[in-house]
Amino acid sequence: MQKLIRTLSSGLLVAALLTPGVASAAGGFLPYKDIGTHWAKASIIRGVQAGLFAAGADAPMFYPNREMTRAEFVALMDRLYNGGQYQLYPLTFLSEHAEWSKGEGFDEPYLPYKDVDRLTWMYNPTLRVSVILDRLYGPNAIQEVFPGEAMNPNQPITREEAAKLMQMFTMSPDSAKAWEEVKAWGWLEGERSDKLKRGEAAAAADRMITYLVQDTILPLLDYDGQKFPMVPEIEELFPYFATYTIWSTTEEKAYVEAVDAIRNHEDTDQTFQVLRKLLGTSFDNRIGLHFYLSWDPETEISANLDEAMSAIDAYFADKVIAPDTLRLLSANVYDLALQLGANDPQQFAKVLDRLSTYEAKVKPDSKEWEALAIYLGALEIRSGQTEKALSRYKQFAAANPEALLNACYYLHQDGRLEEAAALLATVKPNPADTRMVQLGKLLQQELASLQEQTAIVSDLGYSLRRLDSTESYQVKGEAVLSGFTFKYTQEIDQRSQTSKLNGFYQSPQKLVSDKLSTYTDGRKHIQYSYDSESQKWEQHKTDKLDFLHEWVSALPVAERAKTLHARYFKQSFGEIDVITEWIPGAALEEKSASLMLERGKVKHVPLFMNKYYIDRASDRVVKHTWRYEEIYSSDEYVAYSGTDRYDYAANVKLSIPDEVRKGVTP
Q: Do residues 628 and 637 lie in contact, with contact meaning Cβ atoms separated by under 8 Å?
């Protein structure tokens, strides 16, 4: 299996959004007959290439000066989301296969509008956007954009309505400022009540694509512990390291064919034998030979690393300054270090010692130095030298996005938010450098949110305490636990410390669903559950914890923030405040070491996320969505996701029926 150089996930979005939907626009080809002289021509063409607009024999015209309808713009947002959904995943928890489910798979969601017909083209994209907004902002959030029973899908959309939909990508915490935020991002211009034209919408989408392929909307959030230290995206993984327009020698032909085989994943043992044979000749592309020999899957990784280092030696021997080439060669070394360090973390320091010897060969503070320094910093982080890495990153953070991200992230991790804000204030990017401009704005927003953690924790803690002190309420929910799908209604009477749950569940091994019925006696820590096969009640003790998430859910929010380093983000949309909680797996693994869980010791926690939807008027939690992944010492993988909705109007009075207690199997 070929080794892959570690790249940023934004490279996936580039590939998704830039795959041509029609023939290339080069050479004067146009996807539509009416855009040749239009100011938004380039954006429209890129939109077609990104799959945002249909083109072809059935759609010869774009009508760029026509007003865009609400349904058309919603469909445009749906397509943008499909290309950039990984950006919003930390807030939606929706995977690419889950955007249809209102909860976790039982009931198909529905639209609140009577005039969007299920059989029309506009229904599915409108439904998907509605579900996304529900997950982001709370129940029926689309009504904050298009209120009432009628959406009027063929009505021209205003710029403010468009801004409320585009807001999902801005990370603005306040929906009341959607228009101002979107306008500040430069995506829309004009007045909020103006109608949006199709050409203008294409230009706005084009600007959003540029934004989406550059950085995540929460740049300092590392919800699964895989993002930092950040290293650059490598655009060209398989260069020739020289120009071969016409093969002048048999050696050149052999080299190019070998590189092409590796590039196309068609390499064999013979491919690398050819490269080794060339190494023994006078063939002058030594960088390329050593670089590609480091990709030999049959060679020990340590030997691959030697070849990768030899490629850097060859680079300096050529005495040609090429920062992009040095960046690729350093990335190759870092990739091999990651593989070595996975089994032996001490390898990071050893690789760092070898790579750092090249620092004296480059001019300080040059682009060539930056190309090497970003990987030296990453290796310093991996080897526990965080302060040294911070000092390095600060030297070029003002001009390098990865250095800026890493510096701000590790300052935040160390509780030095003021220092991070001061560093960010020194960054004065060229207005033409859109990535640094947008990254600066995203970091400012995120640092502001981080400075509000105490207030957010207090707000969430208050609402959860209100839930715990409520005398009675009803919960309707759906969940998936390791392949088992549940739909249920739970009634809670906290006066008697009794709860009742009814519903059904679907086992992945059975075609039909089973009845789900339980009573829980909170005072005696006993649960009575009905076994549909034996048609009898069974009794279980509840004073022992099965899963890690049960232990976490019992902790006060302030405790999660303090001891588990939980991170919170608050947004407001209409009548709902939405608080998202991420808990780093490393903290959970460390703190759970002393726990005695029925499932065993916790080995790894890839994901732990919650969303709480709070009615602003009553401060009550009205909805809770979660997604957890837990791996235990037995290698059992537990994936648990779901959504609960709370009804406080139900006056629940419960006691466990005598026939349940008496019917328990001994």
A: no
